[in-house]
Design goal:
With 349 residues, this protein is an all-alpha fold. Helix content is 73%, strand content 0%. The chain is elongated, with a radius of gyration of 27 Å.
Length: 349
């Protein structure tokens, strides 16, 4: 049970302690501050809408948030200007414009469809992979515990023979335990760092799509006029903030719900885990006023992305999905009922 193949077993028994001294693609779609023929087709032909777009541009210029002003402010902070003008951001701009042009949907629905495709085709598989890695790591905990007990006994015997102090014994124990655990991770191909792959992909993608929508919403072009008339319901203008605060508040609530559902998985959280959860709760609340100051297109993307993330989180709790992924640890047969019971017992009792 405690052996890890021949190499791990020999390492443990021998205990070798003393011997271990894009911009080009998007330029064909987006011509900033120009009226290129390639974009004139997407602008409505009516004079009324054209004049309305011009009026919006004049109002935005008078209020100090025009595309030129944004570029001037960004110039003061070179890192933001470089990030907003990066190849990945322009690739996201091209992707968003292509989705809208191919589908022919209104811009608000195109943003939702683009978010759904990205979350489903990229983020969801990575989240499933993360679940597999975490399951393998959890399955190793029993074996690691047995190895630690055996190793502790071997170290105590060697300490009496060599006259080691308690500090030296702890050092050799921890050093050899790390080596054995590393071999376990290699054997099962489940290093915990692989579980963080989702974050390293999702965060840059989220930032790039957000900046792409901001660029499209604030640039003086025909696309801006389309976005200005591409909203729905209480946010008809996707280039201006949501004055009703409905989208920002919904975003904050869904993010808090995600945090609370995640916290229910931790029966006895450590002090550090509690600190991280409280930080994320505070950030979720802080996102409300931030979402109220950005274009509605960004707030809509943030809300749609969080809503899909919550839906995927619930989907990955399904016993059918666990069977497909062949998870090695035992899971509840009624995860949704257990989640509801834990939520009620925590907040209503």
């Amino acid at each position: 049970m405690w052996s890890v193949g021949g190499s791990v077993r020999s390492s443990l028994l021998q205990l070798r302690l003393p011997q271990l001294p894009v911009r080009g693609v998007c330029s064909t779609v987006i011509h900033r501050k120009s009226t290129a023929p390639g974009l004139t087709w997407s602008a409505p032909a009516s004079v009324g809408l054209t004049s309305a777009c011009c009026q919006r541009s004049l109002v935005r210029t008078a209020s100090g948030v025009s595309g030129g002003d944004v570029a001037g402010v960004a110039g003061a902070s070179g890192w933001y200007s470089s990030l907003a003008d990066s190849a990945l951001v322009h690739l996201c701009e091209h992707f968003l414009v292509s989705v809208q042009q191919v589908s022919g949907l209104p811009w608000w629905m195109s943003i939702a469809v683009a978010t759904l495709s990205v979350r489903t085709l990229i983020t969801l598989p990575l989240a499933a992979y993360q679940l597999v890695i975490v399951s393998k790591v959890e399955a190793l905990q029993m074996e690691i515990s047995e190895l630690a007990k055996r190793l502790r006994y071997e170290v105590s015997v060697r300490a009496r023979e060599r006259g080691w102090t308690d500090k030296q014994s702890r050092f050799h124990f921890q050093k050899n335990l790390r080596h054995l655990v590393s071999q376990l991770y290699i054997r099962d191909n489940c290093h915990p760092f692989k579980a963080s792959l989702l974050v390293w992909v999702q965060l840059p993608l989220w930032i790039s799509l957000s900046l792409a929508l901001r660029n499209l919403s604030l640039d003086q072009s025909a696309l801006q006029c389309d976005l200005a008339a591409g909203g729905a319901l209480w946010f008809p203008d996707l280039t201006s903030p949501d004055s009703t605060w409905i989208l920002p508040v919904c975003l904050g609530l869904i993010n808090l719900l995600i945090v609370e559902v995640f916290s229910l998985q931790r029966v006895s959280p450590t002090r550090f885990q509690k600190l991280v959860l409280n930080f994320i709760r505070g950030f979720s609340v802080l996102m409300i006023p931030i979402a109220a100051t950005v274009p509605s297109s960004m707030a809509l993307y943030w809300f749609t992305s969080s809503l899909l993330g919550f839906s995927h989180n619930l989907l990955l709790r399904s016993p059918a999905i666990h069977k497909i992924l062949k998870l090695q640890t035992a899971r509840s047969d009624s995860p949704y009922r257990d989640l509801l019971s834990a939520f009620i017992s925590k907040y209503y009792k």
